[in-house]
Fold:
Amino acid sequence: MLEIFTLSQAELSAVKLSILVGFWSVAASLPFGIFFGWLLARYDFLGKSILDGFLHLPLVVPPVVTGYILLILFGRKNGVFGPWLYDIFGISFAFNWKGAALASAVVSFPLMVRAVRLSIESIDTGLEQAAKTLGAGYMKIFFTITFPLALPGIISGIVLAFARSLGEFGATVTFVGNTQGATQTLPLALSAVLQVPDSEFYAARLAVISLVIAFSSLIISEYFACRAKKYKQSGRI
Amino acid sequence: MFKIDVEKQLGNILIKCSFEIAKPCITAICGCSGAGKTSIINMAAGLITPDKGIISYNGREFYNSEKKINIPANKRFTGCVFQESRLFPNMKVKKNLLYGMMRKSPSSLNCNLDDVCSLLGISHLLERYPQNLSGGEKQRVAIGRALLSNPEILLMDEPLASLDEIRRSELISYINLIQKHYKLPVLYVTHSVDEILQLADMALYMEQGVSKYFGSVVDVLNNAAIKANRHNSFNTIFEGEVEKYDEESSTALIKFGGGYVESSCEKVENGRKIRFSVNIHDVVLSIKQPEGISIRNIYKGKVIEIVKQPNNFYDILIDIGDKIWARISKGAYSELDIIEESIIFVMIKSAAISDTLKLVH
Structure:
């Protein structure tokens, strides 16, 4: 009976990898997500709609295409930047978890930018103007007014992006392949298991694990968003 | 002291404004909605950039299109109070107040937290969040916050528009108090004639983006009223000083350009500056010295202008020391046989004045 709860080596590494990839994809894209969300919310400039469209591309392009483009750009031997990144920084995205994290980050980026942008747009620009007349420069305004007030939106952006990277399949499999222990996250492991005959039990178990992780991350985020919102309303951030 | 002479195209309205304030006082900027009042404030604060012109304070230029000077808003040392208080919801009142305090200002204001708090009566609110303040309290904190940023000039954009009548009169006295205490020049946007009458020393009237009249409150308001309400009824505004107050009959004797006027009002001290207005329909004319009538305020004057109204009325401008408008019917006009330069007696009912009396702070 107990063996239902005993995960195999492959499953355990898929769970760990999924969380690792999810964490780093969000962590790496967060500063850029906040920057572009703020830029799009607060400034009008030439080519804004082009930039906006470009940032939203991963949302509408099939993930396999995204993976393919990543391969062209960051392939270790034949990519545009790949060899250069490896020679100078020693960074390689090929067939390791960093590649999986990059693919997840790219695919989930539009969701994060959207959430941040919406929450910044909902902040009264009058507050920022008032801060300006009180002598605050851009940095001070951002860190004392804009960021604290946008926090609930930023948190929901983080969760959306994390959830999206947990479910990321197409871009990852195209970019870094499906190697157990290196790039095999939960969805990839599930897909691999399904190829094997008579493995319904293992497939179901992986599906349940995915569900549990996704659901608990939603609950955690909801908790933080609620707290942030409540604090914002009562003014206690 | 403060000089502005700017042009700015905003949508289909061209803002063209020029005036100069010589000494620290409250200057009201008035006009209809959409006349460009707020734009003037925003240009002075540096929140919008004019197309061309000059904005300067005490010889220092904030903006000069020819010399390509445009000091950013955070380095202009203007204290702004907006219609909505714009307090930062994520900070307690105290932190809000201290937000602008760090900057080094060339002004010699040197406000400190305790003084400002006791002056505005907000000491007990320091630990609260803006969400838990009433409208009047919020605006007082906003004024305090602007003061504590050590401004050289205060810019107020309809600070009382969102408040009820009681809070409004309360805040009027606060605004006046800080202006007198810190001797700051104040630009005060409003469309309320009451606020102008109680607060302002000078006034600027804007019409469709253009600064039309600038000068003393009485002159500007009288010109503006005629301009805006030529075909409707309008008031002539006067400024005077309380000469004597009779407690028994609760009447004040007010000295103004035309002589003395009697009006019942609440107790005021002698020498108090007062403004009042007379509606053109409340003025009675007579070509002979009236005798044996109940009206106490009678003035001798000279007709200087007659304007025929399309609805068969005549508006007569009479100089009784100050200028006053009266409206009479066509029948009365032909019977009295008035021409320009005629000598005429003007009568005003005290009751018509008492409701309009405004103490000038």
Notes: Chain B has a mean pLDDT of 88. Chain B touches chain A at residues 45-47, 72-80, 82, 84, 86, 88-92, 99-100, 102-103, 129-132, 145-146, 149, 155 (CB under 8 Å).
